[in-house]
Amino acid sequence: MAYYKVIQKVRYAADLLNLAESFDQEAITLENAGTLFNKAMDGGKITEIERRTLLYILDRHPFAPEAAQWLQTQLGTGENTLEDTIRRVIRLEYNLTNLDWKIDPEMVRARLQKNGARPFREILKSALEAYLHWSQGPLSFAGCVGRRDLAFVDPNQSGNLLKNYLDRGVLQLLPEQSENPDCWVFDFQTPDFKYLNFHAFVHESQNQQYSKGSFDAAAPHAPMCASIVVQHARLPQMEWLIPEDEVKQQLALVPGQNFGNVLFAALTDGIYNAESSFSFHDFITQDVWVDPELGVQAYERAYAQRGKLHLIPLDYKAQADAGTDSFPVPENASFSIDSEWGFGLEMPEKTNFKVLITVPRENTDGDAAWNTCFIDEELPLSEQVMLVIAREFKLDGLQWSLPEEDVLKQQTQFGPDWRSIPSLFRQALNTVLHDYLTPKSVFNFMAQKLSESTPASDFDDPQEYRAAIAHAIFAHLNHATLNLLPIEMEDNNPINGEKIEENWLFYLDLPQLHSVGFWVVIPRWPDDLQQAYTYGDF
Q1: Is the pLDDT confidence value at 150 over 60?
Q2: CA-based diameter of the chain, in Å?
Q3: How far is CA 86 from CA 72, 105, 173, 379, 478, in A?
Q4: What does pTM read for this prediction?
């Protein structure tokens, strides 16, 4: 029989654990507690492992109040003992069974004697509340967890998710800090967020607390950048070009800057911020057919995943004049290298836009970043569309028409429209491949034809089923024709009467599948509830 049982890398006395499990009562009685204690005293004294085991049983088994009090007394501990207070708050009240802690009792006692306005139990609970219920700023604990899981969590609705992350790390009480003399300061570190420390600030005398994180300023440059890109931003396939020497030069502009916080801001708020005009969010929604089960953020991450990130250098203008810049910043961009960090994001797989991400140099908490997209229009319009169709979608056999004079007429006659025409074709094709919501869409037509050979019931994941249908549609697009409809549409009026002054309209002919074609409808000025759709008559 094994003498010990190892739980979370800690040894406990197996016979005491088994004895506690054998009691049938709802709560361990005083008699049971005596049996446990006597079992531990078999050798005439209680060893450290036996004492640890009895404390473990106290934490994880229900006890009658008098039984718990008696056993605590025998063990020389009690509700008012600091170590027991910490254990019972973390293990019982918050049910954090794996969270480790490093809290020096002498440090706590000295602080309480100096100004013990609140019991340490309340201070500790406030620190845990700061981690679990404070979400202001992307570097708060809740903010980081939300961005890591693309959940953007509301801490009031996501206690289990945050607790799961909190239960995998180490909590430490830091010495009193001169810059925060009225606050107890805790530090939390977890392998889930490498090089990142989460601090909880708990006011000495008031019921106020908050949390924020910061990256280790002394961490090695390349591993830290890699960790932020791969682990924190969850972009393992992104290529990044961030020279350490350039970072050091730019850090000298504003002493005290933390580059880890800056890069984190660029890859979280910077990419996903949809508030600016010509944002990455706007361009994505005009490129894809957004599956509501995934949300726009999933597409933004997918685009960034395949991208290349550049740090804009201090001498970017001189490099532009010399023709050696790796990421040309548009001359009309609202960007000042003296007051902002700049990052350029390009998507080599895409043909028509790049993203400029800016982070204020005065920002030290990773909570402010913006993005602006710009269109690369060096090639003629027809060549840009051809690259989308042939290079991105690899549809060399798809026939298409783009009446360029009519495009200009539509943009002029129906109001200003800054939409990229290559993006229109990209969105039209994505809508054909993925619109499963419209009853008479190309997707549902194909699903109906393949219902016997490819039924949805054969797939455990709906996304896998939809991908299979899209693959089947794709095989027919190389024999199809996709036309952008002009203002005069005598032969191609949509049967549902969509107006061309309100929509960009395409007509798709799939001769191998259907004698009647399909219309693709893309609203010119979509609101949050509108997206492109396609339908035919079948």
Answers
A1: no
A2: 101
A3: 14, 10, 12, 66, 67
A4: 0.75
